[in-house]
Design brief:
Blueprint lengths: L2 E6 L11 E8 L2 H9 L8 E4 L11 E8 L30
Parallel strand pairs: 2-4, 3-4
Antiparallel strand pairs: 1-2
Length: about 100
């Protein structure tokens, strides 16, 4: 676990507003998170969990401990949704029509 001070957060918020984290830990593993939770100085601080930063708007510096989640793993590149024809759609329904 590496505690960083005065870290720019501009790349991590939707509108790129200039803001800094007074304290930030990059969580890259379960061990990093457990180290934060075991640290007597950090456990009492308010926390802000930050992922990729989409849908995040910062309007100023963050005084809470920022936990920047950087766990390597899979990324969602595309999402395909398949649904079978709806029984309500008579033109494609496989259900017999009622007479």
């Amino acid at each position: 676990m590496n505690l960083e001070k005065n870290v720019p957060l501009q790349p991590y918020n939707t509108f790129g507003i200039a803001a800094k984290a007074h304290a930030l830990v990059r969580v890259r593993s379960e061990a990093d998170l457990l180290a934060v939770l075991a640290d007597p100085q950090l456990i009492t601080l308010p926390r802000l969990v930050l992922g990729g930063g989409s849908n995040m708007v910062l309007t100023g510096d963050v005084k809470a401990l920022v936990l920047k989640v950087e766990v390597p793993g899979m990324r969602l590149v595309a999402c395909l949704l398949y649904t079978s024809p709806s029984p309500r759609d008579l033109s494609t329904s496989r259900m017999p029509s009622s007479a």
